[in-house]
Design goal:
The chain is an alpha/beta fold. It has seven helices and eight strands. This is YgjP-like metallopeptidase domain-containing protein.
C-alpha cells in the first residue's frame, strides 16, 4: 500500500480506520502488536484504498504521477491527463479552461444581477476561492477553482459580484445571493469541505 499509515493505540476493543487524502489513521487496541495491526490493514487493503480515493474525490486532490487530475469536479480522461506531466502544465491547462468557463458565468450573472465588474483576474491563492475590491470593481478568482464543480464556481463568481453591491457579509448580502442561487448554503458547505 503506497500511503502513509499512522497507528494510534487506544483503550478500545476493535481496530478503527479513518482516511485523509494521503494517510490512513489506524486506531488500534493497546494489546495488539504492530505486526497484527499491519496484517489487518493488508487484509482489508482494497477497501481502505477505496476509502482514500473517496476522500481524494471529495477534496479534488490531483495525483499528477498517477494521471489523476480533476477538472470541474470530474477526473480527466486518461488520454488528456497523461499529457499534463507537471504542475506547470496543469496550471496552464486550468487557466485556459477556467477562463473559458468564467467568461460565460460572469456574462450570465452580469445580465441577471445588473452587477458588472471592470475586470477579473485568475490568480493562485492559498486561502480564498475569490476576492473582490468593490472600489476598483476588481474580482480575483482562485486558479484552483478549476478543480471544483461548475455550481461551486458559479457561487464564487456570484458571491464576489454581490460584494460590488454589499461589501460585507450582511443579511442583505446573503438575501441577494439567495435570489439567484436558492441552494447556496449547500453549495457553500461543499466549498468549505
Amino acid at each position: 500500500m503506497s500511503v502513509e499509515i499512522k497507528i494510534v493505540r487506544k483503550n478500545i476493543k476493535y481496530i478503527r480506520v479513518s482516511a485523509t487524502t494521503e494517510t490512513l489513521l489506524v486506531s488500534a487496541p493497546k494489546y495488539l502488536s504492530e505486526r497484527d495491526i499491519l496484517a489487518t490493514v493488508r487484509e482489508h487493503e482494497a477497501e481502505l484504498l477505496k476509502l482514500i480515493e473517496k476522500e481524494r474525490s471529495k477534496k479534488y486532490v490531483n495525483n499528477i504521477g498517477a494521471g489523476e487530475i480533476y477538472l470541474f469536479g470530474e477526473l480527466l480522461e486518461p488520454e488528456i491527463s497523461k499529457t499534463l506531466t507537471s504542475e506547470v502544465k496543469v496550471e496552464k491547462f486550468y487557466r485556459e479552461k477556467l477562463e473559458e468557463v468564467l467568461k460565460s458565468i460572469f456574462l450570465e450573472f452580469n445580465n441577471m444581477t445588473g452587477l458588472v465588474q471592470d475586470e477579473y483576474k485568475i490568480r493562485k491563492m492559498k486561502a480564498r476561492w475569490g476576492t473582490c475590491y468593490p472600489t476598483k470593481k476588481l474580482i480575483n478568482i482562485n486558479l484552483f477553482l478549476a478543480k471544483r464543480p461548475i455550481d461551486e464556481i458559479k457561487l464564487v463568481v456570484l458571491h464576489e459580484l454581490v460584494h460590488l453591491k454589499h461589501p460585507n457579509h450582511s443579511k442583505d448580502f446573503y438575501s441577494e445571493i439567495a435570489k439567484y442561487i436558492e441552494n447556496y448554503r449547500e453549495v457553500q458547505r461543499r466549498l468549505k469541505e
